[in-house]
Write a structure and sequence with these properties.
The chain is built from 6 helices and 3 strands; from the N terminus they run H-E-H-H-E-E-H-H-H. The chain has about 130 residues and is mainly α. Strands 1-3-2 form a 3-stranded antiparallel beta sheet. The chain is elongated.
């Protein structure tokens, strides 16, 4: 299981989008948003390599870093961790909190409804396992 800090998420998102970047490319891409220099990027990439989230290959004199964990896998781990920590693992509690706080628009409620209907339709088509 890979556990990423907020800063590491910024780097991973860039790497997932580009499928590989040099330190110079990452520094340029993140400079405006974060203010990080190349030394901070290098430190974070080294830490992420130890976590087995990224790896690198040599291309000439440059190292090209690329993700070795799928975005979906890490996102699901993070989501489940958040759900456990904040809502004791209850998706219903989280959705209810969002509804009570009026944090969901009508469009978002419809989107959730559509997703649930799709899942229900898929489950209804599967034969029962006994």
């Amino acid at each position: 299981m890979v556990n990423l800090s907020d800063g590491e998420w910024k780097i991973m998102n860039r790497l997932w989008e580009s499928e590989g970047s040099t330190i110079t490319e990452l520094t340029a891409a993140l400079q405006h948003e974060t203010g990080w220099d190349k030394h901070i990027i290098i430190t974070m990439l080294n830490r992420m390599e130890k976590k087995e989230a990224v790896a690198h290959r040599k291309e000439g004199r440059a190292k090209v870093f690329y993700p070795i964990v799928p975005r979906g896998e890490v996102s699901m781990q993070e989501t489940l961790g958040f759900l456990k920590k904040v809502y004791r693992g209850s998706l219903g509690m989280m959705v209810n909190a969002m509804v009570e706080d009026k944090a969901l628009s009508g469009e978002e409620i419809q989107e959730l409804y559509d997703i649930l209907e799709q899942v229900k339709g898929k489950r209804d088509k599967k034969p029962d396992r006994k």
